[in-house]
Design brief:
Blueprint: H1 19-27, E1 38-40, E2 58-60, H2 66-82, H3 89-105, H4 117-132, H5 138-159, E3 170-171, E4 192-193, H6 200-215, H7 221-241, H8 253-268, E5 271-272, E6 282-283, H9 286-305, H10 307-314, H11 324-327, H12 352-361, H13 363-366, E7 372-377, E8 380-385, H14 390-402, H15 406-410, E9 417-418, E10 433-438, E11 450-454, H16 455-471, H17 499-513, H18 529-541, H19 546-553, H20 558-564, H21 569-574, H22 593-602, E12 609-610, E13 613-615, E14 635-637, H23 642-667, H24 676-696, E15 706-707
Antiparallel strand pairs: 1-2, 3-4, 5-6, 7-8, 9-10, 10-11, 12-13, 13-14, 14-15
Helix pairs in contact: 1-2, 3-4, 4-5, 6-7, 7-9, 8-9, 14-16, 14-18, 19-20, 23-24
């Protein structure tokens, strides 16, 4: 339902505003082009102010009084300055006519701020019906409301600038620069609306409490949204129980404990509503209930300590009724029991087959909408159109390659790459790490915010930079704030993609593609946090130490890292990662010790990369049989090594024939089959023959890894080596 409740005067504001003086202050210092009363979208000074479809229409506000003309001019100047909005000249011409009608009916109205949005919409619909003899279509009405709402919200905040920021019922970082914020806020474009929270004492008290927490640095803007949700549930509880006093009950510890337990029961029975395209519903998860109880608990702890200040600031003496019992009414035992460290869930891990399939099809996301691509769905070829989101495609690829959180990638600086001191990138082999990537670490204070990346990530960053320069009409040396700028309402590139919109595009793409995993379930690109779990699991299963993976993921504790690493037996045996080799020719590399540590530690398992395959021996074990790989069940190989194994087989057979001939010449009799040397060579030959059979049975383009194919070539396995039930797999 549309919310029309934009308050005219926040608490503490003047009840008799001087609109003439206020509007004069609005336009003070503005370019004369915004003085009106006529605005021509073709004027170069108004470039970007009007929507493309209305630039041939002149906006005429000459019928409006001076105050309203100033307000419209100020709004157009604001659109030009911020780049967040574009005005539709035709819509504003209709609003000018509507406002003139309202003034004729109500002469005391001098400003757009003198009436709430709901009344303006009623007047607009009345005028529309008078002109066309019918009611407006929902879409037409929505566009008109959108046009006025944008101006009205900002105008009211401007007129009430003397009011403390936290007293407003709409909290928005773009509307009020006084709201505490970090340099990079993941949800900077999201507004928090308090108007529908009742009772009033809870709404105003929560705003006061959050102001204390934010200004002291205890809470950040990103947490305000969840506090608003938790407060709304507590508001529903107070309404259902008929509570209309900050003290909640008679003040006794017994009654407050009973009420706290009652609220916990209330949350356990809470049913989440589904709205729009949301698929989330049902009861609350234990972790959500925990957070909600903690929110209200902390709220009453702080408000009890600050009850005198709250009563004065809110002009409500009822807050003085809080006692120490209110600070103790919630106990840790009230909250659902949870493991201190949640175990890794293998369902968050994407196996190689599924990840390869997702990477193969991701290009369709960035393909222009007028182009198509053939994909295979249920063994049938299907022609699908592109979605035209190349920036989202590149952001997802960076997530897949680095394991970063979505917000960390979306908020990266336009130039996030820097050199690794002392590293000669020209000498780095393919797949090696060549640069340092800086991302926005906004979740964990004091956590690392750089990682080392390879040429593939560097190329994606450069492609995205070129795309941004083209679409924002930047020169070769020009930059904007973010590498992934929001593509609408962002002419100056000052806002990044938000995770919610990013996930929405990825979810739409997943449904459009309809890619299925081995269980037949939809592969959701929007569950991009699984890429982080996958990266952590892959690194640990490849032998990287926990403390190195911890730093790579930007965690402050190894316990958090282990939540991400599904180091289960089945996964550890199935997955293998061959990371880039680092030069070891004795040269002194003048690079940072931390960079050297990452390069060496992340690469430490390259001793398990063999000339003809891989050694899957667990990292904690060592091997003293370097010449017995082919018959070992820890040896794995694939078709790329087939020529090497065939060559080694031919060389071994030639060596055996040569040694047998020399033995016969020297001793006058053939070499015995029980000869220790010959027995070992024959075992190697049998193992390599079995490996070749297994690899040749794979398709020519197969990337599958065959493990233990030569085990049956060992001495003692000859009777089963040719059995079809005992071939290496």
């Amino acid at each position: 339902m549309t919310d029309h409740r934009i308050p005219l005067i926040p608490s503490g504001g003047s009840t008799t505003p001087d609109r003439s003086a206020q509007s004069a202050a609005l336009v003070d210092g503005l370019d004369p082009v915004f003085a009106g009363p006529l605005f021509d979208g073709r004027d170069p000074k108004l470039t970007g102010v009007f929507m493309r479809g209305s630039r041939q229409v002149r906006l005429d506000i000459s019928a409006l009084p001076l105050v309203m003309r100033r307000e419209v001019g100020w709004w157009l100047a604001t659109c030009a300055r911020t780049g967040e909005r574009q005005a539709h000249a035709s819509e504003w011409n209709r609003w000018a006519v509507t406002a003139a009608d309202v003034i004729a009916r109500h002469p005391h109205v001098a400003s757009f701020a003198d009436r709430p949005l709901a009344e303006w919409m009623t007047a607009w619909a009345r005028r529309f019906h008078a002109d066309r003899g019918r009611m407006p279509a929902p879409g037409h009405r929505l566009r008109a409301e959108h046009a006025l709402r944008g101006m009205l919200e900002r105008l009211l905040r401007q007129y009430a600038s003397e009011v403390d920021w936290w007293r407003h019922d709409i909290w928005s970082l773009r509307l009020d620069l006084r709201i505490p914020r970090r340099e990079h806020e993941p949800r900077a474009n999201t507004a928090v609306r308090w108007g529908d929270i009742t009772p009033v004492w809870l709404r105003e008290g929560t705003k006061f409490y959050l102001r204390l927490q934010m200004e002291s640095g205890q809470l950040t803007w990103s947490t305000v949204m969840q506090h608003r949700v938790n407060t709304a549930r507590f508001a529903a509880f107070t309404a259902e129980r008929g509570i209309d006093h900050p003290a909640l009950a008679d003040g006794s510890e017994r009654s407050l404990r009973a009420l706290a337990l009652d609220f916990g029961t209330f949350l356990h029975h809470w049913q989440r509503e589904t709205s729009g395209r949301s698929e989330v519903g049902g009861s609350l998860q234990p972790r959500t209930i925990n957070k909600n109880l903690q929110t209200i608990d902390l709220f009453y702890r702080v408000m009890t300590d600050c009850r005198t200040e709250a009563a004065e600031a809110l002009d409500d003496s009822r807050w003085l009724a809080l006692t120490d019992s209110h600070a103790r009414m919630f106990r840790s035992g009230d909250r659902p029991r949870q493991r201190e460290v949640r175990e890794a869930d293998e369902r968050n891990y994407i196996n190689d087959t599924d990840l390869s399939s997702m990477l193969t099809h991701i290009e369709l996301l960035g393909l222009p909408t007028e182009q198509t691509r053939t994909v295979v769905r249920d063994a049938r070829q299907v022609e699908l159109a592109g979605l035209g989101h190349p920036a989202v495609m590149r952001a997802w690829l960076i997530q897949a390659m680095t394991g970063r959180r979505a917000s960390e990638v979306l908020m990266m600086d336009f130039e996030p790459l820097s050199d690794i001191p002392g590293l000669d990138t020209a000498a780095v082999p393919e797949g090696g790490m060549v640069a340092r990537l800086r991302y926005q670490q906004t979740k964990i204070d004091a956590a690392p915010n750089t990682i080392l990346v390879g040429r593939d990530v560097v190329e994606i960053v450069r492609e995205q930079q070129a795309w941004v320069r083209e679409h924002w009409h930047l020169g070769a040396a020009d930059t904007i704030r973010y590498l992934f700028p929001k593509t609408t309402g962002n002419r100056h590139g000052t806002k990044s993609w938000e995770t919610s919109n990013y996930n929405r595009v990825l979810k739409d793409f997943s449904r459009h593609l309809d890619l299925r995993d081995s269980r037949g379930e939809l592969l959701l690109y929007s569950r991009s946090h699984r890429l982080r779990h996958t990266k952590a699991t892959t690194l640990i299963n490849a032998g990287a130490p926990i403390h190195v993976v911890q730093r790579y993921l930007g965690h402050l504790s190894p316990e958090m890292t282990m939540r991400y690493a599904a180091t289960l037996a089945s996964t550890a045996e199935r997955e293998f990662l061959a990371l880039a080799k680092v030069g070891r020719d004795g040269r002194e590399l003048g690079m940072d010790r931390r960079d050297m540590l990452d390069l060496v530690q992340l690469d430490r398992r390259t001793d398990r990369i063999l000339p003809n395959g891989y050694c899957l021996l667990p990292p904690t074990r060592s091997c003293d049989k370097g010449n017995a790989c082919h018959g070992c069940d820890h040896f794995a190989t694939d078709r790329t090594f087939l020529p090497d194994i065939q060559r080694q087989l031919a060389e071994t057979e030639s060596l055996v024939a040569s040694r047998q001939a020399r033995h016969a010449d020297r001793y006058g009799e053939p070499m015995s089959a029980a000869n220790v040397w010959l027995e070992q060579r024959n075992a190697e030959i049998r193992s390599m023959q079995l490996e070749i059979i297994a690899l040749e049975a794979q398709p020519a383009d197969s990337t599958a890894v065959v493990r233990g194919a030569g085990v049956l070539g060992r001495t003692g396995y000859q009777n089963t080596a040719n059995s079809p039930d005992h071939k290496g797999t």
